[in-house]
């Protein structure tokens, strides 16, 4: 059985521009969609016969990573809108192990295929985000006009995760001094950049994260929507953006909200008196 997801209609609309297709030329390199699937094994290769047998049933955990690359089932890998699917090493020996989930004999095919969308619903109600700075990660802190007038306090920072590097741009000196003192005792590299108006966030991402993006980004104050937009573009997968202000921004900001789904990015606000409060678990 195969279900149809709204994301499948997005493939029709966006083609190779769909975030999971990486610009693939579908006219010359088409795909077979459908990632909500219940499968039954009808043949097993010689090297896998001790692990699988004809008649075994599975659903596919579609968010497949192989050698660090997302090769989602029904996107980069052929999906379930075909009579037969070849399950290869990307699924059987992926970065997280095997992406096949066993199904009991009494479970219906449609019931099993709905496991993936129902799992999305369950996940939406669970607060599983990071509750700390990413240990060994990269942090970018950006000050905006007016941020120098605030009294920033890093309450509980000594108990926070210890990043590998902190990059500061236009950070008020009082807060910058607190950060240097904390970082010095923990062996964290601290770098101060040129002013925000003189830098490229793409170059910072390349120079300080190897192109992956920052794991934690803080924008201080509400004086620059452009800084918020740059911070969003600079986020790593599963990165967190915290806007530290109690004042409204002067205009709406352009954020790639699709990354919340595809890259598990997270956005929060916090008071200048306790920026790290944004990492507290939601009760």
UniProtKB/TrEMBL annotation:
Chain ranges of the Alcohol dehydrogenase-like N-terminal domain: 1-87
Any single Pfam family the record assigns to this protein: ADH_N
UniProt xrefs under InterPro entries: ADH-like_N, GroES-like_sf, NAD(P)-bd_dom_sf, Zn_alcohol_dh
GO terms for MF: oxidoreductase activity
Record's keyword terms, sorted: Oxidoreductase
Stated name of the protein: Alcohol dehydrogenase-like N-terminal domain-containing protein
Organism of origin: marine sediment metagenome
